[in-house]
Amino acid sequence: MPTWLIVVLVIVVLLVLWVISTYNSLVSLRNKVKDQWAQIDTVLKRRFDLIPNLVETVKGYAKHESETLEAVIAARNTYVSASAPEDQMKADGELTKAISKLFALSEAYPELKANENFNSLQKELSETEDKIQYARQFYNDIVRKYNTKRETFPTVLIAGMLGFKEVNFFEASAEERQNVQVKF
């Protein structure tokens, strides 16, 4: 067997091994992105389970604040009906804003603020919000790793041919960046 043929075969084998390795690492990162999205979804589910209890507690004290309560329920329902991650991210921003208004309401109602059930639910929801923030941060870290791997040369050549698409970061909406203002 001629030497040049052996060199060509070795190069081809190395190239095939590199393609396989690159593909496997992209698949691994893509699956981590999906896993982290599922983690966010799990924590958001906990948040949604707490919201009806919190709203019912507030209803008893703040009957005339139905607009805020309806906004919380509407935002919760919007998330539940969203199917794409992008729609879920947008609905989550609306829900975060509505929950912030709901917590701000407690400042105007001292008897609500003193209610043990409300305080317990508010604490659980606050802890859940912290978990959501952590899950979002970890999701964005994985998305960054995936997108960086997908976009760097020479991986970009294989990623494009094999259909690996860019994944969006979980970003705060413009409304989430603003302070909550409750006016009475």
SSE blueprint:
Layout: H1 3-61, H2 66-81, H3 85-108, H4 110-113, H5 116-151, H6 155-161, H7 174-177
Helix pairs in contact: 1-2, 1-3, 1-5, 2-3
Task: Describe this structure as you would to a colleague.
The chain has 184 residues and is mainly alpha-helical. Helix content is 82%, strand content 0%. Helix 1 packs antiparallel against helix 5 and helix 2 runs antiparallel to helix 3.
Shape: rod-shaped
| Structure class | mainly alpha
* Strand content bin: under 5%
Sheet with the most strands? none
Radius of gyration: 24 Å
Distance between the ends: 89 Å
Order of helices and strands: HHHHHHH
- What ranges have pLDDT less than 50 throughout 5 or more consecutive residues? 179-184
Estimate percent helicity.
over 70%
Q: Let me know the average pLDDT.
A: 82
The tally of strands reads 0
Q: With helices defined by DSSP (H or I, 4 residues minimum), what is the helix count?
A: 7
What are the salient characteristics of this protein?
184 residues; mainly alpha; disordered C terminus
